[in-house]
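2.7 Reproducibility. Because tokenized structures are sensitive to small changes in the input, we list the exact sequence used for Phytanoyl-CoA dioxygenase family protein, including any N-terminal residues retained from the expression construct. No trimming or masking was applied before prediction.
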Amino acid sequence: MTVVLDNTIKLTDEQVSYYRENGFVQVENMLTTEELEELRENLEEAMGVQGGRGVQTSGVGDLYYKVLNQRVNTWRDHGGMARFVLSKRFADAAKQLTGFSGVRLFHDHALFKMPRDSKPTPWHQDWPYWPMNETGAMSIWIALDDVDENNGCMMFVPKSQRVKNLKTIDLVNPEDIFSDEGASGVDRNMAAIVRLKAGSCTFHDGLTFHYAHANTTDRPRRALAIIYMADGTTYSGSNHVCTDGQGFEKGDVLRGGMFPKLA
Ligand code: SIN
Ligand code: NI
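Resulting structure tokens (single pass, no recycling of outputs):
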């Protein structure tokens, strides 16, 4: 059966204020069992697409593949993925948490941590990779498998979203983000380990420090992340796989069919 995700879920005041204070929040049961099954099937199909519009950013044998087997913009290759990625339910939850007056898609990415020979996703912020002038863009990270410290669950440092102006971290040869002078107030010992049941999710601000454990099990850890930005967010001019070749000039509002308004 084909699922419909056009309903909205009212988050609690506690969830909204937790997100605004700490830069992340956990939300249980974002998907029903039936929706989860369908998303797993869609995502497996989308990961196998050859020559589509989505971008496979790592390949078997690459060092990066040990951190993440990642495919960006699955929604452009697979109608079923598009229904999840463009869904009102997730975007509306992002709107409630951020308080944005409108929410646009930046991109989705499938994030598989492959079995056994995998590496942790090092501590980093997401926003420095994004070609945006304004902060505030954020991600939903939906677990397609139960996750804990053995197979790649995430950790977040509460309140670290207040730290701006840091550089990108090389996810393969990472510098220690905590040793950056700008991160001096951030204590890695305060990090929250977020174990999730499949179908549950977290939302995190693009500036929140986060990490994911290696996957030491014999099954992939599958997750779908979708990045949302405030309607009106402008292009910084930096290179990014989703904006390169799209004709944007520095300062232009990120909009159009690649960046649809979802809520
Ligand atoms: C991961 O899924 O391992 C990392 C996700 C992220 O960095 O947002
Ligand atoms: Ni990240």
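The first strand starts at residue 24 and ends at 27.
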